[in-house]
Amino acid sequence: MAHILGISGSLRAGSYNSALLRAAQGLMPAGSTLDIGTIRGIPLYDGDVEAAEGLPPAVVTLKEAIAAADALLIVTPEYNNSMPGVFKNAIDWLTRPSSDIARVFGGRPVAIIGASPGGFGTILSQNAWLPVLRTLGMEPWFGGRLMVSRAGTVFDAQGALIDDKVRGQLEQFMAGFVAHLDR
Length: 183
Ligand code: FNR
What we know:
Layout: E1 3-8, H1 16-25, E2 33-37, H2 47-53, H3 57-68, E3 71-75, H4 85-94, H5 101-104, E4 109-115, H6 123-135, E5 139-140, E6 147-148, H7 151-154, H8 164-182
Parallel strand pairs: 1-2, 1-3, 3-4, 4-5, 4-6
Ligand FNR binds near residues 12, 78, 80 and 120.
């Protein structure tokens, strides 16, 4: 059964995207697992730091977690109709050195979901990831889509998913992705 690594692209304690990732973890099909990786602790990319010190520990940890997983789940906020810089910065670090890209990302299945308080549910951010995933040689799964709009009404103050319709959509999305991985 599939072992997926999920990453939320938000550092906020009250992040809707992190809440969505935690909710997905609780709705996984029997036998499959969803571990949660974090971008916390990853500094701004600086080629001089990389040359002098190598990869920061938080980058190495997340890289190896991806390499050990069957697939990646990107849970992306949307900033200015694209992916947040903090999330893209983290992925940029994870692609260093470039000789490691094939091992960490190459051919690895990936799915994208996201949540926004607005009405378009991260559709443009999800699209913005596609050329990045192509560059990394990943295999995006297009068998389902999940764009959570009006996130302020979908999660309660503690970050629990309280919308039954979205819960059903999330469960269906994860079941579809896992079924794809199991094939
Ligand atoms: C936003 N937000 C936002 N939302 C959206 O649907 N489309 C957008 O283009 C933007 N742009 C944007 C830019 C910046 C700089 C910020 C800080 C925010 C709102 C965003 O969806 C909201 O802050 C979410 O709560 C962010 O995700 P987390 O942190 O809740 O996971």
